[in-house]
Amino acid sequence: MNRTLTHIPFSVRYIFTIYLADLLFFTLFRVILFLTNLSLLDGVDEKAALSLHAFILGFRFDTVISGYLLILPMVLLVFADIFNRHPVVLFKAIRVFIFLLFFLAFFICSADIPFFKQYNTRLNSAALHWVSTPGFIISMILEEKAFFIYLILFACFIAVYFILSRKINRKYIKEYKALPRYGNRPVSLLKTFAFCLPALFLVLLGIRGRTTFKSPIRVGTSYFCNNRFLNQLGLNPVFTFLRSYLDDNKKTNKTLHLADDNTAIASVQTLSSNK
């Protein structure tokens, strides 16, 4: 371990490493989406510049999702550093927690590619419309061979991610076990605060998605040109899925409850007789 890095609290170094790994996989999914839809760029001027801009926007949306998924592990590890308490069970639980969260996130990214091919939009809550009919979903997947390609893609990606995350965790767990449970601090309390508080602020800023005083990042933030595909390329499917699900379940979007037929008929008859 570089002696310079040992002056940075464990929580900051570990979460930042995991964040970079997750960002890599989100970007790989976006590259695949891009390559499988190149035909949608026919006739677009300055393809390279616009595509690069879309990928830069993608970095912002991927950071938002990574921030949401890593904020709890970050807070727990920061408290462990501040109070100089490092139970091994905490680190083990955090490792499992992070893997499960990104397992789901990468599954959504895999499902997003054929979903976009079919509906020309990123994955959203419409995917839940068939949850009540699992038989239909299974038959649809079995009949469409293209779905198997993306299931295999997901299996390969999650296998590589598991190997990479295990390698990262092996590197850090030795150091974590060596951290004192009590007594001398590996990093002074002043340095711990000096690194951890700004790091937490950056995670929260990443979740917000922008540095201006405007509203947090939205789906519309990715729209920057006249090409529909490029406007959606920067979006993260986990973001669009969760955002649409939350919007669908807002209190203001409650289903309109109409009167039953008998009550409606009786009301009309009453109104007619009063005329």
What does this entry look like structurally?
The protein has 275 residues and is mainly alpha-helical. The chain contains 9 helices and no strands. It has helices at residues 10-35, 47-82, 88-119, 134-143, 145-178, 189-208, 228-233, 237-248, 261-273. Helix 1 runs parallel beside helix 3 (88-119), helix 2 packs antiparallel against helix 6 and helix 3 (88-119) packs antiparallel against helix 5 (145-178). The longest helix is centred in the N-terminal third of the chain and has 36 residues, at 47-82.
Keyphrases for this structure?
single chain; 275 residues; mainly alpha; 9 helices; 69% helix
Task: Set down the secondary structure blueprint.
Layout: H1 10-35, H2 47-82, H3 88-119, H4 134-143, H5 145-178, H6 189-208, H7 228-233, H8 237-248, H9 261-273
Helix pairs in contact: 1-2, 1-3, 1-5, 2-3, 2-6, 3-5
